[in-house]
Amino acid sequence: MSSSDLRHVLHASELDDSVWRSVLDSAVSYKENDTRTNSADGKTIGLLFFNPSLRTRTSMEVAAAHLGADSTTLTPGEGTWNLAWEDGAVMDGDAAEHVREAIGVLSRYHDALGVRVFASGTDYEADKSDELIRRVAEVATVPVINLESAWAHPCQAVSDASLLTDRFDGDPSGKDFVLTWTYHPKALPMAVPNSTVKMAARCGMNVTVARPESHALDDGVMEAAQSLADPHGATVSATDDLDAAVKDADVVYAKSWGGPLVYTDPEKEAEIRTSSRDWRVTADRMARTTDGAFMHCLPVRRNVVVDDAVMDGSHAVHLDQAEYRLHAQKALLDYVWDLG
């Protein structure tokens, strides 16, 4: 199989409409039927986690097992060599192996690779182009699944879309979806919010991104989301008024992110973030919704991002959301291996 024929999953928005719909339907079916098969018997997937993981790692390992496949999980730098990434690198430092050899070898051992590699937080253009995960796909000779990169988290996006499809009886279009920035003691990457706004738009939901002006999402992300919403007649907008945004919402999705300012003036970003502790999902705010669902990709800091009253109340679907990671990952493995 040539590299152009490989079924990589790098950004969910890059999947064509028929694949997107098929993957969502498959994930919902796995949830409804608790299906375990031997459809991937004899296959293996190599999982590389350059950054920590609980749900992504576990759900992918279990998803492979449910399909009859084996998995190998590696943490580069902990039991394996640190990697160099740049072509032409003079490797006289800590990196003992180049990504070309590491991915080249693992491609010969495995039938697919899953890779998590976070944003640099310092080079905006490199992160925006998703340079590292695309380098992996460039040198791999088997399908690559992005397990969260600098700019995207397709596994989360597919999982969340599957949950929303299930929750709204197969069609979440026309529902009001709020993605809200929240205070966090750290400046977090933008992969999840970038993927979430495009995911909800592609589902035909009317999306509002609530955030301080300082933490606006990239213009290109917002424009891409609107283009995904257009075929459904849906809208994508932004506001700095959280209370107004959540009024009558069907879904409130909380997530922290650092925003572009962290690349240009991290001290200013930290100052604004620290002064924005009131950007928190509370029971009062959820009471403004239309009995809306509360979503979060996890891990979440209770009583910082969201109050206990919300997490432990009737609005919360975060555990259902996390469960859907398993079903979505099985659906993605079906796709990259063309299991039928």
| The level-1 CATH class of the largest domain | Alpha Beta
Helix/sheet category: alpha/beta
CATH homologous superfamily placement of the largest domain: Aspartate/ornithine carbamoyltransferase
Low-confidence runs: none
> How many helices in DSSP terms?
14
Residue fraction in strands: 5-15%
Tell me about the largest β-sheet: 5 strands, parallel
Overall strand count: 12
What order do the helices and strands follow? HEHEEEEHEHHEHEHEHEHEHHHEHH
The average pLDDT value, as a whole number, equals 96
Rg, rounded, reads 20 Å
What is the percent of helical residues?
40-55%
- Oligomeric composition of the shown chains: single chain
Shape: globular
Instruction: Find the CATH topology of the largest domain.
Output: Rossmann fold
Based on the structure given, which CATH architecture of the largest domain is correct?
3-Layer(aba) Sandwich
Major sheet: arrangement of strands: 3-2-1-6-7
Description:
47% of the residues are buried. β9 (206-210), α8 (219-229) and β10 form a beta-alpha-beta unit. This protein has 340 residues and is an alpha/beta fold. It is 40% helix and 15% strand. The chain has helices at residues 17-33, 55-66, 99-109, 124-128, 131-139, 154-167, 191-202, 219-229, 242-246, 261-264, 266-274, 283-287, 308-311, 318-336; strands spanning 44-49, 70-76, 79-80, 83-84, 97-98, 112-116, 144-146, 176-181, 206-210, 236-239, 251-255, 293-295. The strands form three sheets. It has a five-stranded parallel sheet with strand order 3-2-1-6-7, with helices on both faces. A five-stranded parallel sheet has the order 10-9-8-11-12. Strands 4-5 form a two-stranded parallel ribbon. It folds into two domains: 3-152 and 325-336, Aspartate/ornithine carbamoyltransferase (Rossmann fold), CATH 3.40.50.1370; 156-322, Rossmann fold, CATH 3.40.50.
